[in-house]
């Protein structure tokens, strides 16, 4: 499963943004093959989020995987951050998601 966090920051131009940070909970329990499938599934989900929320996502989610099991991206419309988190969570919780298939197999 995925854990999500939201943070709001003010930039030099006085624009407030939100940073969505998430990681794969207990990721070390997955085999390298399962991790690869999960990462592939997450990248597809990130692309869908970026395409669906084009005006709100300031940095492409796929380019900000910060560690083996963590990712983050910037949302330029902070009021939409929670909606984006729910959308991403729903995508990764679908029965066709590699994230769910890997968790169910454990």
Q: Can you put this structure into words, describing what you see?
A:
There is one protein chain. The chain has 106 residues and is α+β, with helices and mostly antiparallel strands. The chain has three helices and four strands; from the N terminus they run ββαββαα. The chain has helices at 32-52, 81-92, 98-105, and strands spanning 2-10, 16-24, 65-67, 70-75. Strands 1-2-4-3 form a four-stranded antiparallel sheet, covered by helices on one side. α1 crosses α2 (81-92). The relative contact order is 0.22.
| Strand content bin | 25-35%
Please count the helical segments: 3
Strand ordering within the main sheet: 1-2-4-3
Q: Which segments are poorly predicted (pLDDT under 50) over 5 or more consecutive residues?
A: 101-106
Q: Residue share in helices?
A: 25-40%
What is the compact description of this entry?
With 106 residues, the protein is of the alpha+beta class.
SSE order and pairing:
Blueprint lengths: L1 E9 L5 E9 L7 H21 L12 E3 L2 E6 L5 H12 L5 H8 L1
Antiparallel strand pairs: 1-2, 2-4, 3-4
Helix pairs in contact: 1-2
